Amino acid sequence: MSESANSPFRPHESDLPSVRPRVLSGMRPTGKLHLGNYMGALANWVKLQDQYECYFFIADWHALTSDYADPSQIANCTREVMFDYLAAGLDPAKCVLFQQSKVLQHAELNLLLGMITPLSWLERVPTYKEQQENLTHKDLSNYGFLGYPLLMASDILIYQPQFVPVGNDQTAHVELTREVARRFNQFYKLDGHEVLPEPRVLLTPSPKLPGTDGRKMSKSYGNTIQMTDPEPVIRQKLKTMVTDPARVRRTDPGDPDKCPVGDLHKVFSTPETLAKVYDGCRSAGIGCIECKGWAADALIQLMRPIQERRARYSETEVDEILKDGSDRARVRAEQTMVEVRAAMQLTIQTAAKETIAK
Ligand code: TRP
Ligand code: SF4
């Protein structure tokens, strides 16, 4: 059976408006995604899939830049992240969902862009020194790690997108991407035209989301609420969450603006609940346990449809969606590479043309 022709995951061309601006974004498969990933990226991507031609992928090669010594978790994480993408509501009939390492053209473009990228551009990317200093338990003095942003530029430019929806932490990488594209276009043209348009950041509006310890929710702090956490786990995590330090005793008034639980309420609770939180906290009319229970309610309500959607997919289906999406991404990436190779004069044309002419 031809799986490409009648795949249930393939959109019918007629369902889609013909020319939509293209966007591309991705995440590294470093573990199950959490509420911060959902609010900071996925929820936004889900909205984009109706207005844009979307390519969303899992950057498994990028995971190798830091986890090269123990790659044992990467493939599993890739599948888990794909589950999270689908659970969040990304729809393979609306957008292309794929795995980086299944589209070898990214590596080819990375190699070619490497020829024109000054080392100093990579060395001055702020995340380079930061990460090296932060992840001291890993030796990151590798070529691959230095090249991280250039591989990212290749991921992006190979789809010739207009926009890259990312958070603030990635904007320096997109800036480098634009510089590399500009340099490429200065050196090489195809029939007088530029091959690699400069994409722009589509900044994801992301609310301040604290983890259970009050710091920014982040996998590296171990303070996350995961998208797969069942109800009792969410309730338990909320119970141990830090609160306004001024509220030592039940009778002490507190301030939701100085409390991480208050921040959660601001993002997830209804205006009515939020009003109860402000009144009750400031007058010491409610206890933190009760207040945290309401926050847990709101989170559980948000997560329920996400977890239900996740449960509808089997591993086999997820693998198939990833394979199908990667096949589609490859076709689009190859289209760009044909132009890139021609612009860089790697294509021997004359002989072939003469053969056809005869
Ligand atoms: N560096 C990104 C992150 O850590 C992941 C990534 C890799 C990416 N390639 C990309 C994001 C291309 C957007 C576009 O989140
Ligand atoms: Fe925080 Fe709620 Fe306790 Fe106030 S009542 S300190 S907002 S947990």
Report the end-to-end length measured between terminal Cα atoms: 39 Å
Enumerate how many helices there are, as a single number. Answer: 15
Outline: elongated
Small molecules (ligands, ions, cofactors) in the structure: tryptophan, iron/sulfur cluster
CATH topology of the largest domain: Rossmann fold
Mind summarizing the main beta sheet?
3 strands, parallel
Any idea what the radius of gyration is?
23 Å
Q: What share of the residues lie within helices?
A: 40-55%
Summed over residues and divided by their number, the pLDDT gives a mean of: 92
Would you identify the CATH architecture of the largest domain? Answer: 3-Layer(aba) Sandwich
CATH class of the largest domain: Alpha Beta
Order of helices and strands: EHEHHEHHHHHEHEHHHHHH
Strand order of the largest sheet: 1-2-3
Strand content: 5-15%
Q: Classify the secondary structure makeup into a structural class.
A: mainly alpha
* CATH level-4 homologous superfamily of the largest domain: HUPs
- Give the count of structural domains: 2
What is the number of beta strands?
5
> Could you state the oligomeric state of the chains shown?
single chain
Low-confidence stretches: 1-8
